[in-house]
Each structure stands twice: as C-alpha cells, then as structure tokens.
TrEMBL record:
Its cofactor is heme. The keyword NADP does not apply. Heme binds at residue 121. It comes from the Eukaryota. The keyword Ribosomal protein does not apply. This is Cytochrome P450 CYP4BB1. Belongs to the cytochrome P450 family. Keywords: Heme, Iron, Metal-binding, Monooxygenase, Oxidoreductase. PROSITE patterns: CYTOCHROME_P450 (PS00086). One of its GO terms (molecular function) is heme binding. The lineage of its organism: Eukaryota, Metazoa, Spiralia, Lophotrochozoa, Annelida.
Length: 174
C-alpha cells in the first residue's frame, strides 16, 4: 500500500502458499477424479481408449505436455450441481459437460473451480494440466475400481475431503 513492495519473507510466504496449497488441492482433485472414474467404469474405459489411441503409434508411451489438448474427455468432475446450469440431472457424473462444445455455451461464471476475477487462482492452468497428466498416466497403465464394502462420505470444506478416505483397487491393464 505504501509502495515499498514485499519483503523477502513475505515473498517466501506467498510462494509457499502457492506451492503447498496447489499440491493439496491437486492431490484432492486427482483422488476424487479417480474415485469418480472407478465408480463409472464406462467413463474410465472411454478415457483409457482415448489414451491408447493417442499413444498407439509411438515407441515412447509417455504422455507429453503437448498431448493434453488431444485428451478431451480426461477432465475433472466438479462440486457444482446447480440445476439451473446443469439441468435436472445435475447430480449425475457426466464428463461430457466439459466437452469444448458444451463449455462454449456455458456462462464463464457457471463453473468456478479456481474462483474468478482478480482473486482467481494464478496456478489454475498448471493445476489442470498437472491433474490431466497424472490421471492419464494412471489410466494408461491401470484400471481403478472401488472397494465395494467401503462407503465414501464427502466432507465439504475449502478442499473437499472424505470422512474415512477413498479405497480403490488398482489392477494393471493388459
């Protein structure tokens, strides 16, 4: 406010916040995405097919940064369930809601996983790319299913968590 700028300690504190909060929310988002995909194996298979087709003709099967735009279905489910925006089936898991043609039709403030305006997350693009690569790398090698006897209870907060964790089974794909 007085024009003097931030001290070295203040800068360090800001950077620490970005790094640690970014990892926390990314880890939570990846966990929930894998949970949702395990709960909806038809969506998981669609994403795995997309990954397989992308990498089919390559000797190096690693997913690269430039591959991200070629994985349109590999997006993260949201906490947003407003029936005005999402329709009567607002509580259903539908990754197709985030297909480019559907995103274009939606008000830009209808889905705010990273907030909006001058206080939005400056790391949102990095976080989305990071999550997409992590999930794609996991689904490239494994199929995820839920532990049938474990009930997942959401614990809503700034970062959505679970009461007793998410228990998944991971099996190597053939």
């Amino acid at each position: 406010e007085d024009g003097s700028g931030l001290t070295d300690l203040e800068i360090r504190n800001e950077v620490d916040t970005f790094l640690f909060e970014g990892h926390d929310t990314t880890a939570s988002s990846v966990s929930w995405a894998l949970y949702s995909l395990a709960k909806h194996p038809e969506c998981q298979k669609k994403i795995q097919q997309e990954i397989d087709e992308l990498l089919a003709d390559r000797a190096d099967k690693r997913i690269a940064w430039e591959d991200i735009s070629q994985l349109p279905h590999n997006l993260i489910d949201s906490l947003h369930h407003n029936p005005v925006v999402w329709g009567e089936d607002n509580m259903e898991y539908k990754p197709s809601r985030f297909a480019p043609e559907n995103v274009e039709k939606r008000d830009p403030y209808a889905f705010l996983p990273f907030s909006a305006g001058p206080r939005n997350c400056i790391g949102q693009n990095f976080a989305l790319h990071e999550m997409k690569i992590i999930i794609a790398r996991i689904l490239q090698r494994f199929t995820v299913s839920l532990e049938p006897d474990h009930k997942v209870e959401k614990k809503i907060g700034v970062v959505m968590r679970t009461k007793d964790g998410i228990r998944c089974k991971v099996a190597r794909r053939n």
